[in-house]
## 1
Amino acid sequence: MKLTIPDAFGRVSMSAGAPRSRAVRFVRRLWRKTSIAGLAVYALALGALLGLASADWATSGGYPFGGVQVGAWTAWPRAGAANADPYTRAVNARRGEIPLAVGEGLLLTAAVDDAGQALDATCTYRIGGATPPARAWTITVAGRGPRDPGRAPLREGFTSTEVLRAPDGWFSIVLAPDVQPGNWLPSPRATGPVRLALRLYDTPVAASVGSLDRSSVPAVTRLGCAS
Amino acid sequence: MRLVSLRFVYATLIGLVLAGIVHIAAVLAIPALSEADAVSRARTSENLDHPQSIYTVATGDDPSPPEAWLPIPDPAVAVGVCAYNLADGPMRVSARTGPLSLSLAAHARRGAFYAVTDQAAVRGALDLVILTRAQYDEALADDDENDPSRDVRIVAPDTRGFVVVRVIAGLPSQRPAANAAVQAVSCTTDTSTDDAPTGKDAAVKDAPGKDGPGKGTGR
């Protein structure tokens, strides 16, 4: 942006080598003589740059709208629907994502714990409790960006079939950097933010996300941090 | 001088309004112009009669699937896509249900327009036919009243799109079977309007596919 906005007044910045007073006078004269055409070029350049930059910014990360907050989790019921909002469609198109359709399942993501603090790879979390009704679910953890090549891939997630459960049917997964008894989910990287994804497959709640409440999704509790 | 700065303020305001217009236009144009979206990437599988694997779940020692382009895939779900181009004729997707849960979703550029899981299967078979409105009317007109077709017919909003096959491996030991179950789905183009030859064709193509999960070779 900084490179191109002076474009409209390109000659101004190029005359910086001249003595200062002459340059100032030159700028003043140019400024006074700035015609409608110069202003039009400036307005067009401003519009194009700001418009494209903001469109790029809004569609380069995750989905900007359409999430439904449930406890620490955010459900994305309309991410794969044909009537998804244009931003969601643009994000999907840029990432090559194939989102879960409403009849297939529902994606919930969490970047914070129940207290609202961002999930960090150096901390230990307990993820447990109930899940919404679904034929199968998976809980996975991922860091930001590409995977660290030096780290051996131990485990990225649990499925509803393989998770160890308490006698009452509840489960408790511990996300920690170090080995833990029970359902241990290794931190995907040494440091930095991590994200959890809960995918519910073949679930009736995809059509009625409003029926979800805090007690029907797994709680994410921070147990402690290494540093 | 004051006049000039007022003009400058006006130009800035016009620039901001233009920025808004450009922003909206860009966001709306991204799905149509993107070359990295799923519809464009899936297009290479148009000529296959089985899904192209886009995410094979890790089995044993082969951890990284090279063909994966899903940004954050589910490590327990094998994914395959069948692209269709309805200009060549309706596409028939046939899946046989197995022990693993399987789901099919039909996507077009605007998003998913149909999804079904194997719980909707009739006698272990799930047959979808994706067609355009004109092909649908033709198929309806050609229907034999005494022997109505049992296909699930879905009218697609665009001529191009893809069908996603997802198979969930609940346990690591089921992962080879999940990869094989994705490959066992058949996606064929109904070239002619009468169903008899294509039906036979589909049946022949299913036969080797059915052996796949039994052998559990992963491919």
Note: DSSP finds five helices and nine strands in chain B.
## 2
Amino acid sequence: MTRAVIIAIACLLGLASIASAQQSLPPAPLAYEQLQDPAQEAAAQDLMQTLRCLKCQSQSIADSDAPMAGDMRHQVRSRIAAGEEPEAIRAWLVERYGDYVSYAPTVSETTWPLFAIPLMLLVIALFVLRGRFRREAK
Amino acid sequence: MIAELGLAALWLAAALAALQLIAGALSQRDESGELASLARPAAIMQGLLAGFAFIMLLWLFAVTDLSVKLVADNSHSAKPMIFKLAGTWGNHEGSMLLWVTVMALAGSLIALLERRLPERTMQATLAAQAFVGLGFYAFLLLSSNPFERLPEPALEGAGLNPLLQDIGLAFHPPTLYFGYVGLSVAFSFAVGALLTGRVGPDFARAMRPWVLGAWIFLTLGITAGSYWAYYELGWGGWWFWDPVENASLMPWLAATALLHSVSVLAARDALRAWTIMLGVVAFSMSMLGTFLVRSGILTSVHAFAVDPERGTFILALLILYVGGALLLFGLKAGSVAEGERFSVTSREGALVFNNVMLSAILGIVLLGTLYPLLTEAFDVRVSVGPPYFNPVGAIFTIPMLIVMAIGPLLRWKGDSIRRIKLPLAIVAAIMAAALLLVIVMGDYSILAMLGLAIAIGLAVGSFMPLRGRNLRRVPIATWGMVVAHFGLAVALFGMASESAFSEERLAAVEIGQSAQVGPWTVTLDQVKPVAGPNWTAIQGDLSAKYEGGETAILKPQTRNFWAPEQETTESTLATRWNGQLYAVIGNEAGQGRWQLRLWWKPFVTFIWYGGILVALGGLLALIGRLRGDLKRRHAKARLEEQARYRDEEAPV
């Protein structure tokens, strides 16, 4: 946790070199501004919380002051406002930045164990419980 | 001189640990041998020497002895005394010395006090403790010597990272280390019992206070860390499923499972092999946590040791201990009888269910934490975050919480659902009613709605074991269980409420203008520059009015530190019984307007109140158990005295 804080700050400063160029520009309009329609804003918020701030570690773009996170928030909000589906926006970002940008892994060649192992755990858990209690019942 | 004394004490302590290991191990063959009597004194002396070495390091930091490399690298003569002392463990070498010291002192305590177990098991336990200790002594002395001198004293120290100069951080590492080390003692007991095959209620009673103590410290450490991230980060998040957070959560999950299975073993002499296994797993998770945060595999402020050699050393220790213990378990588990039997509908049955679910949750956190590291080794970068952990974890958490609400009502060994059908019906009705209510209230996420309903049902269910009992005669340990279970319900309610009902408002306002968030109207009264000892800041003075009622004054800041140059946001909170207003001031937004970030988070504080209640429940259980142990010891002593008296009286 301490680390998260440090990273947050590192996000601000570690980037000082890039940021100094970027900060001279005002942040993108929708980086710090909500959408008028509460339903659209909620959809944007839900999506932003599942996208990784690429310049930070373990923070979503909804939790970061990094300029890049601000730009990504602007992208998400403006696309939602334009009527795009959240999952389409995610796909667009994944195409641009790779799987790493999305906190919600999808089943793929590299991630299938993330889904297979919990299923296995579930089966093992049921098996252990059944084995244990069937023996007792006898 | 002080540094040399410390180093000498550390070497002596390591030598005594070696003696303790040899004495303990040899006595397994020849119990009456002279060596066997050496293990306990060696353990006690080892603790004293390690403690002495640590005091010497504290001393060096207190007087800022700049001829010592560690002090010169991490301290500064002009620092306040509290941070000079806390700085002792605010670095890699010092924190490893703290770990070893706490572990050695724990070894002294069991050598001094623990007399219930068969002597052979005790010897094996002390040998295991020494074996684990030796690895850390080797690590310290060979690759992380805290007492190393500089060829020439430095003129001034390099100072401590200003972010680590926080009272919370002064206590954060010791809290977690007490937790980790407590689990190392449980591990030693498990290995000792495994070696001699003597696993029973006495073993469980000897192990239990250590598990409970470790669990209390881990609970507090996690709770405090979560609150700290919440107010420091400036975005209102309180848990990020960050690998470092998970590194503390995993030992906690294992310790929670162990705590419950050790209770079954103590009360009913059942679940013997399973308890031993959990003892091994819990300590493995501590070691893994240490490895993750200290090896530099994660870039983080915790990773003082960026030196790859050190990371390799910790990894080698991890593999040696965990692999060794698992091998031993595989070889010996067959010789540990399973213990007493019980039926599905019994207290033990419910606890087995809890244990299996906790283990599965632990498996998922472990998987989600390690998998990205694993794929990164193959140059594939994936992110595993809340959208994965929350639903996948919930598959196991929800059934566990439901069983938790009724499990404590069941009797040991065998019971029937029919006997507890009234409280069962009450809890089920309350859960169903609460669920219905939140469904009617609005469109929230499924997990949040289930969380709210289960929290309310669990809160009621946690008090059910007290139903129809004379409250003055309820044992303290039972109160502990009730308080801890209720605390979990409170924390769960806070989490679900935060997730379902939080309102966010980002606004750009001029001086004198207001913004609305939830029931609050927040007015920006003025913006002014302020200065601190090593920073300047922009401060916004806000007055926040709660539904036209009371007014709170908030003063959030954006701080600029100048040495080293850093910008931080200092959020401010207005706390009411039913939630918190969270305010942050951002940049100037042009045309005299300022960015405000405001959140209204209903019942968010319940998360941490709940955590504190859980720890308090653990403390009550610990007090109750220790009192029970003392009573038992007195009764035994009295019986022995009576027996001796009779023998003397009896005619020859």
Note: Residues 106-138 of chain A form one domain.
## 3
Amino acid sequence: MMTNPVLELRDITKSFGALTATNNLSLTVMPGEIHALIGPNGAGKTTLIQQIYGALKPDSGQVLLNGRDLTGLSVPARIRAGIGRSFQISNVLMDFTVLQNGIIAEHARLGQSFRFLQPAFSNPQLIDGAIAILDRVGLSSRADTMVSDLAHGERRMLELALAMAASPSLLLLDEPMAGAGPDDGQRMTEIIDGLRGDVAILLIEHDMDAVFRLADRLTVLVEGSVIAAGTVDEISTNQAVKTAYLGDED
Amino acid sequence: MTLTLILEQTFNGLQAGVTLFLVAAGLTLILGIMDFVFLAHGAQVMIGAYAAAAITQATGNFFVGLGLAIPLTFASGYLLELLIIRHLYRRDHMEQVLATFGLILFFNEAIRIGFGPAAIYSDLPPSLSGFVEILPDTPYPAFRLGVIGVGLIIALGIHLFVSKTRVGAMVRAGANNPEMTAALGVNIKILFRLIFATGACLAGVAGMMLGPLTAVQSGMGEPLLILSLVVIIIGGIGSVRGAFVAAIIIGLVDTLGRVFLPSILRLFVEQAAADGAGPALASMLIYILMAVVLIFRPTGLFPAKG
Amino acid sequence: MTGLLKFFGLVHAGISDNKFLWLLIAGFAVFPIVTQLVDLPFWNDVAMRIMLLGMAAMGLNLVLGYGGMVSFGHAAFIGIGAYCVGIGQYYGLMNGWAHILLSVAVCASLGLVIGYLALRTTGIYFIMITLAFAQMLFFLFVSLEQFGGDDGMSIDRAEFLLIDLYEPLRLYFLIWVMLAIVALLLMFIVRSRFGVTLRAIKSNESRVEAMGLVPLHFKITGYVISAVICGLAGSLFASWQEYVSPDIMHWTRSGELMIIIILGGLGTLAGPLLGAIVFLLLEEFLPLMLGALVPAYAENWMVLFGPLLIMVVLFGRGGLVGLIDSKILPHLGLGKTAVK
């Protein structure tokens, strides 16, 4: 393939004391693809996401986004460089309405957050931008609801909308279906599916049905190392993966 | 700047340090384990000092005063926790600041009503008012030496208790993770109450030992409270070991700084400037120290492992 | 459970909070007429103190209520503002506007430095480091013999161009105008993009970070603004009191500011001013009430005030603004505050 990867990890290593959470790991995510990261609990999936996101610093190795070396950049700087992230535990602004969440994300995206006079929540342009952000996940009908009053599944949607707000080139999704019921999971799968092609996605998910439905490529992580990588078909027939991971599924 | 003066002031600094430790030891656990901002800890010092002074005056015997005041301060801490404090654990820090600030106002005013606004000065019994020669021709007040001794013994006791006993292990576990302690089947409510009462009692003992050295009066606890907060922050919230190290450092730095800093400054700047800046710098010294520690180690010197 | 913690900035920072604020400020404008009619000019003095403490509390509230930063050292900025007047006069700077400019400049720079250092920490550590910086400044002024040390220094009412503050009510209305300006500014700031970002940081710092913003920048900016407002209040305080001593920045005053805010309503515009009114009226009336019951103990009114504070924490929900909102307005048929 001739296209350049959106995300390229080169030889990332991260240890906590004696525990090696990420072991000399390399990985690429291509434009527009959904790349799932799977592995048993404790395989180091979230630790890896944290290093791409900038909340953890790798001991060695490089994180490249669109060819640009992100190593050493802070979280906000990486966001501005084009990363969007949803968290394992819903990370939304609980004390605000859905629309207000969108508005804050919108002026953050526009780099207008240091303005002191005009009211933010009644600004028509910001409201339009926020509605557009919410429309992506079908939440604009719930615009005036307090986030604390939203159902769990709706919060996951809002989380995804906020992660997508700045139209990132790479989306890190850390268990977007976590805690969602079957209906919500189905909707979330459809929404993520709809993002395919628009944005490169690195997805961590325990719901294997969703993973097999969504992923263009899979990387299997065990104890911080990649044990297999490939398409869904390749991985589902891979013997090493079966024993290491799929075999000991509960 | 004679050797005698340095030695004497070092001992004074140690005495201030161990007293500070007694106040800070309980408070660091209250802040660390219970995550509770308790500003009225200084009032416990005052209650201890007043209890000892009043009973000593009534009975004419210093030791009876001490002996009765110790259980009294324990009881007062126990009651305070039972009546008010336990309702505040789940509140946020700001509300805790506010409520315990209210407690300070109440205790200080209650003491003023009960004992009048004037300070009480208590005399030492003859057996403790003598001097000990710490070096040939260097007499030092026996009582202050006794304070250092008692403080060190209590510090050792707390250390052994926290590091060697089962309850101490719970305290350490609690400092790290209250949920875990609860999961281990420890009755966290009783544990909290006992730690609180013990902390109050230790602060009270500090007050009793300070009584004969300073004026016993309403509001006497607050300067100590502020100092012990500095100690706790420097040592690391929830760390008894940190509180001890920091208390000794603060005691020494504060005492020696006030005495020697102006003369040290005189070596570098003109006398007039040194005399002006010396006391100012000396009184700011410990706060500067705390700010510096926090800037480089935002969770103190000995952060409790979390 | 923690009703006070609920984000009242949002629930209440709506139309009625604004209206309520301006109602109070309008009340202060006509108050001197009332005192004139009933011939009680002493109360003008109380009203000036209320406005000054209210202004400082409004400044602190930006950090405390809207930004969620529990600063326990804002009295230091009041003190610095006041000392800017005293020290300015000591060196022959008599112009009041110059004093105000000086206070604003000094408090802004000091706020920047302290904010930058203190905001590296969070939680209890932040409370304590702000306290430590305030204590540092307190002891600095205690030991500066040149400026009166412990005893403080007396101050002439500053000369404001075309305004002679020794004329009756001139100082009153100078303070009133400043209060109105501060209120207007805060009203804008709180609802602005900066303001809502600050409130968002209080609500969930990591989400704000995930939006590509650096929370520290907003927090420091908020901290500096609040320091400047406290400094302004302090410099007017100096003219009102005609005297300044380190007492003005004693740590208990930082506690008082917090009490005023929580009493009135955390994270509301009207709350700090309302809290200041109630706080200072309690200070005036509790001794009278106690004196009527037990004459010997009139001076010991704190013995009632302390438990009152504990009650406010245990049973108060959203302070007085919250109470008015949920209990009083509905009875008047005005309905609850709209979320705006």
Note: Chain C has a mean pLDDT of 86.
